[in-house]
Specification:
This protein has 465 residues and is an alpha/beta fold. It folds into two domains: 107 residues, Dioxygenase LigAB, LigA subunit (Protocatechuate 4,5-dioxygenase, Chain A, Orthogonal Bundle), CATH 1.10.700; 297 residues, LigB-like (Protocatechuate 4,5-dioxygenase, Chain B, 3-Layer(aba) Sandwich). It is built from 20 helices and ten strands. The strands form two sheets. It has an eight-stranded mixed beta sheet with strand order 6-3-7-2-8-1-10-9, sandwiched between helices. Strands 4-5 form a two-stranded antiparallel ribbon. Helix 2 crosses helix 7, helix 13 packs across helix 15 and helix 15 packs parallel to helix 19. The termini are far apart. The protein binds 3,4-dihydroxybenzoic acid and fe (iii) ion.
């Protein structure tokens, strides 16, 4: 089940992948600091003192002092980053490349003038016993007894005012109580079903990303994500702990599965991510810890074109294939889809709510997610308001569920709908994949589960305040 990394064996070559990037993170960031003339001057004046400012391991540190680029590369450095060290010392790219070959500068230059190094004897193909890798097939079925178990999907709106109501102690006020009552079941359930890690799909609201960069899908591969200051001061909640090893594994698998994710190691997280955590795990102060590790997955819905529901669903499937390939420690994984439901925050049509459409969306999400992928952007915007487009986030969590890979249909554990919270219709669902019993595992991992029905008494009639 291990991931396809045939590039590991190309002679005299180190491919810079997520594992290398993680190993060389501080080394590469140190190199980037040398892009500033004042830093280059400080480094050259006292290299040891400058390096004291960077958490390099002893081997990395010594390799920088020795301008030993081969060791730097072994230690996770990448040549484009490392070239900043060479440039600081006045070396050309040819001098740097030549320094790694064991040849003298003159011999390397002469070799290049003579047509360069010939590939014969220098490629994988020339190694005895090498066979080309078989192109990977995309799994359409589940892996039995996978160490990473996708147990439940959770879907919820992520209105910032809900976070503010919690932060300001207003949850018992009649307006807010109606919202929080819909999460009582979930809070209790979450205590008994705390996963190890949540892949939290949300959309950044011009917080971590601005007009300078507009990535369609961002996977958080870092270890910590500070809570953002969105203009009101940061929410008084814990910072978020990531899961870099699992995130790097997901990045490798999903990108090989033709999804070109943007990988982000450092970013702040906004209400789109923290409000769902608060709704599910309750009021926790900044000194406490969330009970789960979180891998943020941010979808651009700010600037068009935004990804389609179909694309999000397919990303969910790629995510599940990645989880099924995990051979690390056993993990209980949940995927959350957040944002929506109907709302429009702009222009003369602000305040639009479409209860019928929202409930049809929930029905289809439960029973017909494939059909839901046919719904076009225009439909979301026209029917659910310009910000209702956030609902495409939910399709990622749903596309990864067992029944989309020939497994049993999910159980609907909880369904809630309420109008309003601030400008928004609040929707919330918890769906669980069938639990594998010994018999069902023997029968191919499929469990017979009756068609899901909304849980009676959990949906509230829309109410206005
Ligand atoms: C509101 C809802 C959102 O999803 C959001 O991102 C910002 C504001 C609101 O209803 O006020
Ligand atoms: Fe939002």
């Amino acid at each position: 089940m291990s991931l396809d990394k045939p590039y590991k064996d190309v002679p005299g070559t180190t491919i810079f992948d997520a594992d290398q990037a993680r190993k060389g993170y501080h080394l590469n960031q140190f190199c980037m600091s040398l892009m500033k003339p004042e830093n280059r001057a400080r480094f050259l004046a006292d290299q040891e003192a400058y390096l004291d400012e960077w958490p390099l391991n002893p081997r990395q540190r010594q390799a920088v002092l020795d301008i030993d680029l081969n060791t730097c590369i072994e230690e996770g450095g990448n040549i484009y980053f490392l070239s900043k060290i060479g440039a600081t010392h006045g070396l050309s790219f040819q001098q740097m490349a030549g320094s790694m070959t064991g040849m003298s500068e003159a011999a390397y230059r002469d070799m290049m003038v003579g047509g360069g190094r010939r590939p014969e004897g220098n490629r994988l193909k020339d190694l005895d016993g090498w066979t080309p890798p078989v192109p990977g097939e995309k799994a359409e079925t589940l892996r039995e007894n996978a160490p990473a178990r996708y147990t439940s999907a959770l879907f919820t709106s992520h209105v910032p005012a809900i976070g503010a109501a919690m932060d300001l102690g207003k949850t018992e006020e009649p307006y807010w109580k109606k919202v929080f009552d819909g999460y009582q079941w979930t809070r209790k359930w979450a205590k008994e079903n705390t996963p190890d890690v949540v892949i939290l799909v949300y959309n950044d609201h011009a917080t971590a990303f601005d007009s300078s960069i507009i990535p369609t899908f961002v996977l958080g591969t870092g270890s910590d994500y500070p809570v953002a200051d969105e203009g009101y001061g940061p929410r008084p909640v814990p910072d978020v702990k990531g899961y870099p090893e699992l995130a790097a594994h997901i990045a490798q698998s999903v990108i090989q599965d033709d999804f070109d994710l943007t990988l982000v190691n450092e970013m702040v997280v906004d209400h789109g991510l923290t409000v769902p955590l608060s709704l599910v795990f309750g009021e926790l102060g900044p000194e406490e810890q969330w009970p789960v590790r979180v891998i943020p997955l941010a979808v651009n819905v700010v600037q068009y074109p935004v990804p389609s529901g179909r694309r999000c669903y397919e990303l969910g499937r790629a995510l599940r294939r990645a989880l099924d390939k995990w051979d690390g420690p056993e993990l209980n994984v949940q995927i959350w889809g957040t944002g929506g439901m109907s709302h429009q925050l702009q222009g003369p049509r602000a305040g639009l709510i479409n209860e019928e459409w929202d409930n049809a969306f929930l029905d289809h999400l439960i029973a017909d997610p494939k059909g839901l992928t046919e719904w076009q952007h225009m439909e979301y915007v026209d029917e659910a308001g310009s910000e209702g487009i956030e609902l495409v986030d939910w399709l990622i969590a749903r596309g990864a569920m067992d029944d989309q890979f020939g497994g049993g249909a999910p159980e609907t554990n909880h369904r809630f709908y309420h109008v309003p919270a601030s400008n928004t219709a609040v929707g919330h669902l918890v769906l669980s994949n069938p639990v594998a019993t010994p018999e069902s595992a023997a029968a191919g991992g499929e469990t017979e589960v009756p068609a899901s029905e909304p849980v009676p008494g959990t949906a509230t009639v829309p109410a206005t305040v």
